[in-house]
Amino acid sequence: MATVDKPFPPGTYPVVVVGSGPGALQTSYTLRSLGVEHAVISSDDRPAGMFQRFPIFQRLISWSKPYSPVERHSRAYERYDWNSLLADEPDSCGLVTDQMDGTSYFPARQEMEAGIAAFAEKTKLTIRYGCTWESTRKDGDDFVLTTSDGEYRCRIPIFAIGMAMSWVPNIPGIDEVPHYVDVKTPRDYAGKRVAIIGKRNSGFELADGLLPWARQIVLLSPRPTGVSVLTHFVASVRARYLQPYEDHVLGGGNFIVDAAIERIERTSDGWRVHAQGTTKPGPMTVEADEVIAATGFQVPMQDLRDLGVATFMQDRFPALTPMWESASVPGIHFAGTTTQGAVGLRKYGIGSSSAAVHGFRYNARIMARHIAEKHFGVTIDRPSIAPEDIVEKLLDEATLAPELWTQKSYLCRVFESRDGGFVDGDVLPLQAFVDGSGPDGTAITIETDAEGDIHPALYVRAKGSVEEHLLDSTSMHDYRDPEHRAQVKAALGPLGL
């Protein structure tokens, strides 16, 4: 039962947030700033969520740059600090960067954890730790969450539960080998032949960490490896993990193989992986001393499926609306890495950045504002923009807005046409603007096209139809010039500009 010294005792709250990782913290911070009463519960004993343990080999693939082209505590600086959470108070911004020792602009896991903990402390967020969510049911218009401390009743539950739960495909024998989450220390693989099932970031992270130790590394999966700086494939490998790829290309003794795994079997002295080549067809067998399944993760949904929450991608994600609400059970929302369930428009095949803090921190803020307005009658200030200022405002956003640069083709800045001028409609999912039926207005986003060219895209909604206008790219990504002003002004013609 509940202890008297813990905050948020079991009971009824307008909103209950489950989790204490960065997604939950960003959601709670924004709800509090909007005056929405809510409880935050977590099974953990401290903040940071998955960053208490992952990544396994202790350094992130998302950057935080202490020095950048913009002022440190400005909104524009968020574009260069992918790991800190968002706050209105300058001394609560950029906290991950404050923890870094300068040896890399990719934070160590401990630095990331410390930065998140510092955010919770500086912003004085309240969390009920050691309170485990166990089950969920619907009771009239309310949801009831049963926990280890008792029952919580709310109108809106927000699950910021991460996706660090292991997922493995249906391959005979794979359940006998350790998953990424159960990997041993690199020294334990010294002098061994290691087969890694999976060639996405987690697989390459393992290979990178084992390069100094393993005698041989073979990475296997059916699809060819995509490199993030060269391809738009959503699961492409970040450049920081390319040392194993270079070793493979140079013939250093490690191999990256395109092959479908048929079965994994134990032998007298190790393991044998049976596979069929894909890009180069034919059977193959890989002998290994150790096999690791780097096959991905899933959201720990517990009983939410029984409540009717639909899933997709082999049951790994909840299917979400553009505002990160369950597509099948209205009222249930998700935050953090789980917001990948709202896939967006996927222009040029590009997915969102919602798997990482620099993407989902904005999702959390937008969702909290949406919930506050829709369900609790909160009025959010929407500044007016004079007609003569709208072109410059749009180009400022295209040049500087961190939301648009870190969530390309996924988030946009919206300005509604009203009373002969414009009203700031805030940052919203691009899909919500394009597919929605809102008032006339315009939205701008940043996108990378199929050839790798980065440019703004302007959308104009007038009389119920939406037109897209692709603006020219520039070498230095600054669009505040006469040519772009002329392009935007011409595109806004249907709005009477």
Summary of the model, kept short:
The protein has 497 residues and is α/β, with parallel strands linked by helices.
Structure commentary:
With 497 residues, the chain is of the alpha/beta class. The chain has helices spanning 22-33, 95-99, 109-122, 201-210, 243-249, 357-376, 390-400, 402-406, 430-435, 482-491; strands spanning 11-18, 38-41, 133-139, 142-147, 150-159, 165-166, 193-197, 216-221, 255-267, 270-277, 282-288, 290-293, 297-298, 311-312, 317-318, 333-334, 384-385, 411-418, 421-429, 441-448, 454-462, 465-470. The strands form five sheets. Strands 1, 2, 3, 4, 5 and 16 form a six-stranded mixed β-sheet that branches. The relative contact order is 0.11.
Overall pLDDT metric: 93
Oligomer: single chain
* Strand elements, count: 22
Shape: globular
Instruction: Provide the low-confidence segments as ranges.
Output: 230-234
Terminus-to-terminus distance: 62 Å
The biggest beta sheet reads:
6 strands, mixed
What structural class should be given to the helix and strand makeup?
A: alpha/beta
Q: How large is the share of residues in beta strands?
A: 25-35%
